[in-house]
Every structure is written in C-alpha cells, then in structure tokens.
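Troubleshooting entry. Yesterday's outputs looked truncated, so today I'm pasting the complete records for two proteins to confirm everything comes through intact. If either block looks cut off, that's the bug. Protein one:
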Amino acid sequence: MTAASAAIDLRQQMPVAARMIADYDDFIAAVRARADEMNLSRNEIDNQTGLTSGYV
C-alpha cells in the first residue's frame, strides 16, 4: 500500500467533521454551533481565548 492510498483509506474511515462555509454569516453560524455542541458559553470562550469579556 502506498502512502497516498493509505491516506485515502484513512479519509474514507473518518467521519465528516467539517461544514461548508461560503461567507461570514456561515462562519459565525459554524462557530456558534460548535460552541453549543461543546456546551461552552460565550463568556467561557472569551475566558479561554483571552478576549475581552462579551467579545464573543
């Protein structure tokens, strides 16, 4: 098995963890959805990233 075929095989086994982002609104929706999936409040994201409170 070549490295290229091994990479293709690995990709076929992995679940899709991405979504199509076509514009800024899609980006914001994706970030918010992921935060909700991780059960993170916006304030917690601010704290973990070092942003000013209320920024996210």
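Protein two, checking that the full record survives here as well:
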Amino acid sequence: MTLAHRRWVGPVLGADCVAAGGWGEIPEDTASLARRVHPQGTDEIRVRDALGPLSTDEDFTSGEFEGMYSSLGQPGLSPAFLLVVTILQFRHNLADRETAQAVADRISWKYALGLGLDYAGFDFSALRSSAPTWRRRA
C-alpha cells in the first residue's frame, strides 16, 4: 500500500511505512522544486541539508521505549515524523490544523520531512492526541 492510499495517516510506523517514517533520501522531484522555489533555501531546507534526518523510528522503538508502540491495530504516525512536525509547528507557532495543512502544502516542509510532492497530508487530530501541554491552545 502506498502513502497516497494512507493519506489521512501520513508516514506510519510499521512494515508498510516509507523508509521507516519517511526518512532517507529526499525525493528528486521534491528536491528539484524546493531548489527552484527557494534558491536561497529556508530554515527547514538548511537544517535538513546540514543534519539529515533528525531521528529514526528506531530511536523510539528500541531500548527504553521498546514496547510503547503496538503492532496491533491501525498504524499511527511515525514517531520520528511526528517529532519533526512538532518542531516545525513550535518554530512557526501554528495550531494543529494549520500544521497539518503546512505539511500538505509547504514545499520546504516536505523537503525537511523527506516527502514526495504527491503527499496529501494527515488529519490534524493526529497532532492533538500527542501534543505536549505547552503547545495546546485553548
């Protein structure tokens, strides 16, 4: 099953996820468009270029965190993907709904997250359930 078929979930944890959370090489079409649209780069592009992926799902599913993610039921958002989305959300001071929309339509965010241009996003409610209390809005 491709990511497009899981449009509401996003990169997921499990066997059918994209490179265990969407990390790895940035798709060529995403990289090419990002360079044309932002020839000077953006903070997101510069960070991804300098540091590569900030984390992997293995950072969350091994060691002391092993067992926190069940293999049963509907797969959830990749924890590595969610980490970077949350960092971007905090950096840009966006609400959950705005953040989900930004993942779907901002080329620099797709670049930072290693997503293809055809990635349609996920439902904003996926952020609410995992949002730290310092980020929640009344």
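Both blocks look complete. Sanity check on protein two: The chain has one domain: 3-64+77-128.
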